[in-house]
Amino acid sequence: MPPLLGALTTVVEPNSKLGFPLLTFLVFLPAIGAIVTMLMPVRRPELSRAVGYVTSMATFGMALFLLTQFDTNPLDSGYQLLENHSWIGQLGVRWTLGVDGISLFMVALSALLFPIAILASAKVEKPKQFIVWMLLLESAMIGLFLALDAMIFFFFFEFVLVPMYFLIAGWGHDNRRYAAMKFFLFTMTGSAFLFAGIVSVAFMHQHSTHVLTFDVGTLTNWAAANIHGGTAKVLFLAFAVGFAVKVPLFPFHTWLPDAHTDAPTAGSVVLAGVMLKIGAYGFLRFAIPFFPQAAVDLAPLLIVLAVIGITYGAIVAAMQPNLKRIIAYSSVAHLGFVVLGVFALTNQGISGGLFTMLSHGLTTGALFLLVGMLYDRRHTYELSRFRGIWKAAPVFGGLFVAATFASIGLPGFSGFVGEFLSLLGAFLTSRWYVVVASTGVILAAVYLLWAVQRAFTGEPDDENRATPDINFRELVTVVPLLGLSLFLGFYPKPVLDRLQPSVNALIRHVEANSDYKAPTVPTVVAPQKGEGK
Amino acid sequence: MIGADAVAPIAHAPVDWFAIAPEIALFGAALAIVVLRSVVRHDDRVPTASMFIAIAGVAAAGVFTGVQWGFVHGNGPYQAMSGLVAVDGFAVFVQSVILGATLLALLLSGGYLRRENLESPEYFALMLCSATGMLLMASANDLVTIFLSLEILSIALYVLAAFDRKRLTSQEAGLKYFLLGSFSSAVFLYGIALVYGATGTTNLTGIAKFFSTVVLLHDGVLFVGLALLLVGLGFKVAAAPFHMWTPDVYQGAPTPVTAFMAAATKAAAFAAILRVFVGAFHVYEVDWRPAIFGLAVLSLVVGSIAAVVQTDVKRMLAYSSVSHAGYVLIGVQAATDKGTSAALFYVCTYAVMATGAFAVVMLVARRGDDRHALTDYRGLASARPVLAGLLTLFLLAQAGVPFTGGFVAKLSVFSAAIDVGQYWLAVVGMLTAVIGAFVYLRIVLAMYAPPDDAATAEGPRIVVDAGTGVALTIAAGAIVFLGVVPGIMLDFAHAATQLLAH
Asked: pTM, whole model, 2 decimals?
């Protein structure tokens, strides 16, 4: 096997560029905040909130620092800032953390969304417990994206369920217990297969090399070169089930509308913003690099499911009487674009998928925040109860419409860049699926604009006229997300520059270990398309 | 067969006091309590004093176990008393688990007995007797010793289960456990007889040696014997389909006794299973592995599904105990060192999380020990947030959530199964873990539900006594410790497996 560049090789010696373990700090800072919050008196909720803000903002600051430390040299596509310590020697589990172009923006997105979600929940009941669960969730999310040991990844993969479960069950709406339970059980069922997959690969590696390790780099290179044929396909499917539930891919998506509808606003923001990305991230980090040939062979299956998700999600969304459910189903459709792009296995497709993941976190996060504000004012999500809100609350209405446009993927917003690249990338390898998927773009405009039309336009009746406009705190939560989406829509280069080396390395790895050859099309320079198309 | 006609004079085996020092310490403490009881008649302090004597006994036994570990570590394992008992790492590990579980159960019992007006020194003496039997079972290297220890531990437990004489369910539990337990003992004894018939020895090392030189042409008797041994021990670990007694006995027995039964008995009985099957009969691996495979799957499925339909928390935990037996059996049936040490680690973790969960159940039940319905848990989180948090921790650990010992325990048994190519067993285990999670989350949801005014108003306040508080703290600390730095205990389990006396 030819030695591979960067992303898929193991570097054991820790990166000494920084004098301290930045990534471990990033993972544990929110957890430490959670422990501090636990020690705060229940009767002084403002103290708990203060700890929540300070910790999540400090984490965000560290994530920004991580962005500056990330080496953008296009030739350096490997994991950066590596940390590697032994943890459970008996089981071969090591505390290995590292960051590359694929995980970088997921970490940054998590660190951005948590302070916003906490700020948006300033009026929540039992604030102390809420902050504790939120911070634990943040730790787990960041740890999950930074983990370069498959078992550590699985640790966090399982652990995120617990705080999310309590957030939905404790602070959700009417049907929260059912939704929380369904969420927990669906994901756990998926992870049964994921676990079997991870451990099988590790033991196959152990039987052949007598080294028990869960190191992602080592396992990737070994599995890609040594696991073939039917075995590879079965294992790929085991991973795929685990991740498909998380994405969620049709037909594993049924937990999502329930979980989203009944989750509290902060829960929905985090769920849509980062949690759904775990699935797509898992495909890129494990399923595809571990079994490139199987991924190439089974890509049509996943693309079909993605396309079904795009169209089905859009059609079902259009039929919903509940505004929050519409956005929930729109997530099914958006994540369909992500999977479509990822399994296009072209540079544009995967970059587009990753970009859509980032963009969806910003735009859908903003939409869920806005819907949450509407609920705070009116205590309902029923579309039929809203009318003429734009007139009653002009700034709020304007922001909602802007968020809708961003979510639809109007040129100028980040959603356009991501979806365009996904479709373009997929067009190179699976043309006719793209034709079907493109209808999803139109349908997205239909269901979201229709909803906006019904709720926001027209003359408000008495019930709606009293809707108060957005306040400063709420403005602070939404504007950064929309602003960032707009910025990335016009100027996606900083993100794409950091994604590309890792994406290229992944595609080279797939080409080297399968009969697949990525179509050679001149690299599309996306930045210029951002505005013009 | 050997020496049927040679009548040798009965040889007096030299007594190796060091080998049975932990058992002697516990039994000595039990005797001291009985003597104290008969000498000091009218003194209210006797029950409390008994508890401290019992704890001192456990501590002394713990010290002896530690010394044994040091010895085994330095000089290697050996067999004492003409091979009746083994002094090896395996025994030391299981004995540590049993002693830990006994300590926690004793701590729970003090406050419980006071609350229920059952204070009596005999309770502690019985518990120590039972624990003595368990320790002996952990180190037993002869089928006869196993039977002996089985009886010592069981007879004391029958009485303990029925200890709350006023409560009908406790009497029922005692009687049921006694009837089914003595039946299973008889089955086990018959198994010993058949195995002796086939191999000419009851010594486990002797059996292993026998099979290393002899191939049986007619092995029917042996297989029936093996099956009967498995039934007898399967009964004690509450593996399906020999679990029928579990829900009734767990529900009816005084809650600290239930905790003791779940944690310590399981550890002792699994030690015997591992020694007999993985140790002595490893030659017949191909034949007994499918049987244990079947027991494992059945326990997992029956335990987790039956738990779903329960409305009584104690019964839920009883059925979950059946499914936990299934997880340990996954490790057993791998029949590898990895599987054995995984099973040991699981037993240790289960002892901690079961005792912790039953401790909270005991407190919530309040005076009368009868508030076990799921509805009794409503509003617990707002009334007693710390207790609710602890029970949540223990239940999540049982569900196998990361950063608790339960996750590492499940991880290691599944790893052992996958290591020998049994992917489907691991997947079945994971899927039943999902059903299990549903059960545990139901209890958690009930706790965090708004209080049911009618139910909470009538009940007295939950009182946490000092002993239970200490026990809960230890258990909570241990379960997190096992989840965050499992390396120490895993190394211990691994070393224990390596230092198995053959």
From this structure: 0.87
pLDDT tens string B63-92: 999 999 999 888 888 888 888 899 998 999
Which residues of B, range 386-405, sit inside 8 Å of A by Cβ? 396, 400-403
Of the candidates A472, A458, A453, A452, which has an alpha carbon nearest to the alpha carbon of residue A395? A472
- Check if the beta carbon of residue A117 is closer than 8 Å to that of residue A103: no
B490 contacts in chain A (CB < 8 Å): 88-91
In a domain, B13, yes or no: no
Residue at B8 is within a domain: no
Number of structural domains found in chain B = 1
Classify the phi-psi angles of B3: left when phi > 0, otherwise alpha if psi is within -120 to 50, otherwise beta.
left
Closest CA to A381 of A481, A451, A479, A473: A451
CB neighbours of A209 closer than 8 A, spacing ≥ 6? A222
Among all residues of chain B, which has the CA nearest to that of A192? B430
Amino acid A352 reads: G
Angstrom distance (rounded) from CA B185 to CA B182:
5
User: B162-221, pLDDT tens digit by residue?
Assistant: 998 888 999 999 999 999 999 999 999 999 999 999 999 999 999 999 988 888 888 889
B2, part of any domain? no
**Domain assignment present for B340:** yes
CB A258 within 8 A of CB A182: yes
Tokens describing residue A166: 């309590």
Distance CA B105, CA B108 (A): 5
Q: Provide CB contacts within 8 A for A4, sequence distance 6+.
A: A221, A505, A508, A509, A512
- Residue A471: Cβ within 10 Å count: 11
The secondary structure of A230-281, three-state, reads: HHHHHHHHHHHHHHHHHCCCCCCCCHHHHHHHHCCHHHHHHHHHHHCHHHHH
Q: Looking at residue B501, what is its pLDDT?
A: 63
Tokens 């039997």 sit on residue: B133
Does residue A161 sit at the B interface (CB-CB below 8 Å)?
A: yes
Q: Give the range of the structural domain holding residue B215, as residue numbers without chain letter.
A: 21-498
Helix (H) or strand (E) run with residue B13 in it? none
Read off the pLDDT of residues A311-353 as tens digits, 9 standing for 90 and up. 888 888 888 888 888 888 888 888 988 999 999 888 889 999 9
Contacts with B, A 182-201, CB within 8 Å: 184-185, 188-189, 191-193, 195-196, 199-200
d(CA A17, CA A14): 9
B-chain CB neighbours of A137 within 8 Å are: none
Are B139 and B91 a contacting pair, CB within 8 Å? yes
